[in-house]
């Protein structure tokens, strides 16, 4: 028999705090525990001590000092390392969170604060009916991007009331997983591929979801809601360093919200983090397409991505097309288009889709014995320091992934003047349709940086063929690749949108059209032109796209966004090993680019397809990467945690493994293996 004193020496007191909403009820409890008591047993003892009848199934222990959840209920207190000085909070795992969507609408819903962010985002996307949740993540705005808005708010005496869409009745509110019915092949809600609104025949399938027909329309349809005053209050990056601030706040996908300091009812941004929009389908992806469109639209309006004045007017015209179509939709919305029009939308989608290296190898049909080639008279432009550019015509031959040029066509049987290998190069369009300028800027990696070469084409057709060949060659593909012709058509389609002509009809329309052009262009152009001038120029560009449907207008906008040289680049300020100055690192879906922070010029490009391995030295926070041909780089990240870049690289490699042939179940374990790191 053991005495009471001997028994007491093995027990100790543990103070537990209960997070509940009952004001009069006790919140702190002191329990006698032993080190071999498991977490589940501690929960049971606490609930018995609380003695309040309610559902405690969503509650778990949060260890405040260690900033971690105690979710393994079979582990003992000793195994967890819990001692008498531990502060444990018994709190719900699902809490309210405000999310700012790409369309600037705010939704409020319950989210798991204990699950890894990757899993939490997946549950959020199921509630919002957004497929391919792996393309999105949560972003916490940095203090720098909020300073400008706070200064404006100080001058305003009246508090700003935000229209919040409350989705708190979602299936995960009680800790249950989101209804998989939205994802089943036979019960996926269908959208009208023309207007983007839910088809009436399937709207009842939303019955188990907080997405009613009205709420779904808010997410799937676009509403121009910006003004010059509103834009002036928002953060607009002016330099590459400013753009780097936009990407500093991505949350760690391998840790929970609570572990990263996110509190109940905080506001985060839900954004497309990875610019690889896979398997878009207007029938199922109305919300997804609209949110991609909105993220692109705001990136252009806030000048987060650079574009020319000509391109800005194209984007404005497509937005105006969407605006005009939406105004006239009332009676025509019920009339479904013919099969051919739907096919055009699907054709636009196939052009939109970005095929990653290794993604669709089954669709790449190359005949090794007969690889196509291009042969044309082009002009070569080589920039020279302290002098004018040297422009000269040569006979060019494009074969495999290389360009060779000769003095003339007759000398093409001999040795070329120079052979340019385009694999791994940067291809940048240099086009002004109005001025009949069709140029291709090539930045070719060499030992000491990048070799800059310009090619000048004579017309749109020649430019499209050569540009498409250069883009494929930069990825290591030839013109025999099945994506060559779609790439040519995509380029021609974009040029066609640029190729507007002034007509008498266009000049007479501004007086009759109810349009606020300031909603469609960035502040730079509202300051440069008067409202009537902008309206006239937008309507000029509008002539070629006036027959587009609502969804097709958004798809064309996304397609044009993807055609911009800076598309898909996320910037970070880094210091390369051995360097004495800071540089900017651009991370894209298939490559890393070292950029001079002062001039913005690319210095070197490294492609993921040539990468052998990468790792992180967590002690000094340094990322090290090895490539083929004994090329290795190492850098520390100055504008964000190095884990963010590590996750970007692993995330893009993970996304390249996706295939339409597989089911929609993601290999979450592989994602964390590629992105998690070993800290």
From TrEMBL:
Localization of this protein: Cell junction; Cell projection
Keyword Nucleotidyltransferase appears in the UniProt entry: no
Coiled-coil stretches noted in the UniProt entry, renumbered to this chain: none
Entry's Gene Ontology BP terms: cell-matrix adhesion; integrin-mediated signaling pathway
Pfam families recorded: FERM_M, Kindlin_2_N
UniProt cross-references to CDD domains, sorted A to Z: FERM_C_fermitin (cd13205), FERM_F0_KIND1 (cd17180), PH_fermitin (cd01237)
Primary residence: other
Statement: the UniProt record of this protein carries the keyword rRNA processing: no
Keyword annotations from UniProtKB, A to Z: Cell adhesion, Cell junction, Cell projection
SMART domains, alphabetized: B41, PH
Domain PH: 379-475
Single Gene Ontology MF annotation: integrin binding
An annotated GO cellular component: focal adhesion
The family this protein is said to belong to: Belongs to the kindlin family.
Protein name as it appears in the record: FERM1 protein
Species per Swiss-Prot/TrEMBL record: Serilophus lunatus
Lineage, opening ranks: Eukaryota, Metazoa, Chordata, Craniata, Vertebrata
Chain's gene name: Fermt1
């Amino acid at each position: 028999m053991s005495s009471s004193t001997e028994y007491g020496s093995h027990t100790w007191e543990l103070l537990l705090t209960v997070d509940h909403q009952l004001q009069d009820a006790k919140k702190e409890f002191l329990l006698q525990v032993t080190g071999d008591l498991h977490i589940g047993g501690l929960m049971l003892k606490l609930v018995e001590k609380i003695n309040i009848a309610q559902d405690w199934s969503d509650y778990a222990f949060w260890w405040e000092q260690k900033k971690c959840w105690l979710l393994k209920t079979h582990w003992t207190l000793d195994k967890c390392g819990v001692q008498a000085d531990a502060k444990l909070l018994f709190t719900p795992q699902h809490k309210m969170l405000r999310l700012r969507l790409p369309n600037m609408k705010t939704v409020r819903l319950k989210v798991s604060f204990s699950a890894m962010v990757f899993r939490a985002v997946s549950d959020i996307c199921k509630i919002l009916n957004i497929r391919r949740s792996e393309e999105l993540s949560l972003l916490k705005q940095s203090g720098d991007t909020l300073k400008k808005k706070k200064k404006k708010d100080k001058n305003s005496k009246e508090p700003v009331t935000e229209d919040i869409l409350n989705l708190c009745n979602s299936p995960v509110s009680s800790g249950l997983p989101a209804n998989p019915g939205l994802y089943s092949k036979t019960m996926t809600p269908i959208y009208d591929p023309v207007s983007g609104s839910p088809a009436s025949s399937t709207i009842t399938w939303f019955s188990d979801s907080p997405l009613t027909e009205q709420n779904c329309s808010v997410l799937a349809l676009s509403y121009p809601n910006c003004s010059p005053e509103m834009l002036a209050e928002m953060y607009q990056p002016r330099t590459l360093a400013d753009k780097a601030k936009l990407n500093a706040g991505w949350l760690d996908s391998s840790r929970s919200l609570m572990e990263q300091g996110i509190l109940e009812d905080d506001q985060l941004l839900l954004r497309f983090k990875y610019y690889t929009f896979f398997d878009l389908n207007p029938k199922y992806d109305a919300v997804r397409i609209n949110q991609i469109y909105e993220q692109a639209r705001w990136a252009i309006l806030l000048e987060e991505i650079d574009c020319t004045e000509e391109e800005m007017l194209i984007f404005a015209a497509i937005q105006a097309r969407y605006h005009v179509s939406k105004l006239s939709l009332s009676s025509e919305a019920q009339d479904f288009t013919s099969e051919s029009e739907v096919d055009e939308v699907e054709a636009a989608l196939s052009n939109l889709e970005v095929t990653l290296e290794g993604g669709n190898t089954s669709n790449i049909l190359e005949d090794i014995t007969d690889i196509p080639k291009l042969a044309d008279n082009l002009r070569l432009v080589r920039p020279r320091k302290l002098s004018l550019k040297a422009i000269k015509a040569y006979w060019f031959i494009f074969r495999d992934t290389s360009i060779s040029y000769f003095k003339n066509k007759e000398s093409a049987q001999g040795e070329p003047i120079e052979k340019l290998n385009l694999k791994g190069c940067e291809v940048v369009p240099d086009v002004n349709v109005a001025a009949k300028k069709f140029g291709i800027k090539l930045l070719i990696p060499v030992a000491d940086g990048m070799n800059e070469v310009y090619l000048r084409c004579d017309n749109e057709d020649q430019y499209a063929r050569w540009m498409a060949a250069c883009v494929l060659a930069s990825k290591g593909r030839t013109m025999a690749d099945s994506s060559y012709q779609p790439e040519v058509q995509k380029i021609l389609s974009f040029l066609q949108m640029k190729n507007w002509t002034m007509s008498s009809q266009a000049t007479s329309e501004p007086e009759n059209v109810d349009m606020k052009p300031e909603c469609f262009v960035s502040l730079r152009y509202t300051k440069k032109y008067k409202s009537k001038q902008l309206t006239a120029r937008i309507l000029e560009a509008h002539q070629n796209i006036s027959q587009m449907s609502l969804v097709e207008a958004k798809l064309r906008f996304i397609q044009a966004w993807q055609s911009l040289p800076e598309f898909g680049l996320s910037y970070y300020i880094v210091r390369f090993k051995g360097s004495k100055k800071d540089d900017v690192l651009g991370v894209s879906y298939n490559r890393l680019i070292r950029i001079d922070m002062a001039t913005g010029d690319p210095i070197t490009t490294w492609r993921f397809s040539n990468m052998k391995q990468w790792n992180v030295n967590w002690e000094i926070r340094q990322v090290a990467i090895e490539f083929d041909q004994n090329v290795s780089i190492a850098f520390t990240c100055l504008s964000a945690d190095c884990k963010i870049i590590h996750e970007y690289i692993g995330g893009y490699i993970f996304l390249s493994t996706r295939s339409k042939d597989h089911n929609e179940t993601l290999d979450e374990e592989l994602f964390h293996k590629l992105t998690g790191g070993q800290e």
